[in-house]
Design brief:
There is one protein chain. With 109 residues, the protein is an alpha+beta fold. Among the domains are: 29 residues, no CATH class; 35 residues, no CATH class. Helices cover 28% and strands 7% of the residues. The protein contains 2 helices and 2 strands, in the order ββαα. A two-stranded antiparallel ribbon has the order 1-2. The longest helix is centred in the middle third of the chain and has 18 residues.
C-alpha cells in the first residue's frame, strides 16, 4: 500500500466480499478517522561549515547504533529532530578543532 497520502485518513475495500489485502484496499478520506495533518514546509538547514568536503567514515555497527540512540534521545529532549550525522560531526569538531587563522597583522579571523 505504501505510505498514507496526506489528503487521506483511512482505508476502504474495493470489493466488500474479499478480505483486506494490498490489492483490495485503497486510501480514502472518511468523515470519521484520523485527523488530516498537513506537513509544514520546513526551511532547508544551511550548513554551518564553510567549504564542506565529503568523507567516508567506517565504524562498527554497535557504535552506529549507539549514536542513533543518542540522537533519538536528544531529539526527544529538545523536541526537534537531530540526525546521527550531526552528532558525529560535532564529536569530530570537538576532537579536531579547526586551526585558528591569523591574518598578516596577527588578528584572528
Amino acid at each position: 500500500m505504501g505510505e498514507m497520502p496526506l489528503e487521506c485518513n483511512g482505508l476502504a475495500l474495493r470489493n466488500e466480499n474479499e478480505d483486506f489485502s494490498k490489492w483490495n484496499c485503497m486510501w480514502v478520506q472518511k468523515p470519521k478517522g484520523r485527523p488530516i495533518i498537513k506537513k509544514e514546509k520546513q526551511p532547508k538547514k544551511r550548513s554551518k561549515i564553510n567549504n564542506p568536503q565529503s568523507i567516508c567514515l567506517v565504524m562498527e555497527k554497535d557504535h552506529l547504533d549507539f549514536i542513533k540512540k543518542q540522537a533519538l534521545q536528544l531529539s526527544v529532549q529538545q523536541g526537534t529532530y537531530i540526525e546521527p550525522n550531526e552528532l558525529i560531526r560535532e564529536a569530530l569538531q570537538k576532537a579536531f578543532p579547526t586551526p585558528k587563522q591569523f591574518d598578516m597583522f596577527g588578528d584572528k579571523k
